[in-house]
Amino acid sequence: MINLDHPCDRVRVDSHSPKATSLYGTLVCCVAALLLFVQSCSPISKADCLYADWYDKGWEDGAKGEPLSLFVDYSQACAKHGVTPDRAEYESGRNEGLKEYCTTDMGWEAGSSGFPYHNVCPSDLESAFLKGYEPGRKLYDAETNLKYIEDEITSSREQVSDLEQEIEELQGIVADEDTDEGDRKIYNRRIKEHERRMDSLDDRIDELRVRRTLAQAEYLDALTDVKAAGFDVPLWRILDMR
C-alpha cells in the first residue's frame, strides 16, 4: 500500500512533480560531485597514464622524495585505462631524482617545513640528507608545539574574559529589583556555573604555562642544533617568547 505521507511514495505517485524534479536534480548533482571527488583522489590522470614519460615521472617523484609505493598506486590507477606503467624506466628516473633530493640542503628544506621522510635515500646519500633533515624537523616540531600551547593559552584567556563579562551582566540582572525571584535563582545558578568554568580554565592556563616553559626550552635547544648544523634561521621565523 502506498503511504502518501511518505515523501518517497509521493515522488513515486507523481514523478513529474516539482519536488520529484528537485530531488532528481539533487541526486544528479551528488553523483557528479562524487565522480569528481573520486577522480581528484586518483594519483594520476588518464592522460598521464596514456602518454607519460615514465623516466621523467620517476625523476619528478624521486626529486620530491616520494616513496616507491607510489608506483603501485600508479599501476592500479592506470590498469583501469588498460595501461601498464614501465617500472624499469620509472625506477631509473626515480633513482636519478633521489640524487637531487638526498642532499643536506633539501633535507633542511623538507624537515623545517614539516614534510615526512619516507626513508627513500640510498645508504650513500642518507647521512647527508639527515644532516639537514633532523635539525630542521626538530625545529619544526618545537615550533608547532610551542605555537599550539600559545594558541591554547590565548583561547583559554578569551573564554575567561567572556565568562567574566557574562557574570557581570548576570549580576546586574540579579541586582535589579524588578527581576522575578524565580529568575534570580536561575541567574545565580548560572553565575555559579560560570565561576566553576572559570576556575577550570584558570587551572588549565596554569598547566599550559608550565608546558610552555618546557616547550620554550625545547625550541631554544632546536635553534641551537640548527645553528650547529650550519643553517641560518630567518628572523621572521624566530618566535617571540616574552
Molecular structure report:
This protein is 76% helix and 0% strand. It folds into two domains: 19-101, no CATH class; 136-237. The chain has helices at residues 7-13, 18-41, 46-51, 54-63, 69-79, 87-101, 104-112, 123-175, 181-228. Helix 7 runs parallel beside helix 8 (123-175) and helix 8 (123-175) runs antiparallel to helix 9 (181-228). With 242 residues, the chain is mainly α. The model is unreliable at 1-15 and 27-40 (pLDDT under 50). The radius of gyration is 30 Å and the shape is elongated.
Topology, element by element:
Elements lengths: L6 H7 L4 H24 L4 H6 L2 H10 L5 H11 L7 H15 L2 H9 L10 H53 L5 H48 L14
Helix pairs in contact: 4-6, 7-8, 8-9
Offer a quick outline of the entry:
This protein is an all-alpha fold and 242 residues long. It has nine helices and no strands.
Distance between the ends: 74 Å
CA-atom Rg in angstroms? 30 Å
Strand content: under 5%
Average residue pLDDT = 86
Subunit organisation of the chains: single chain
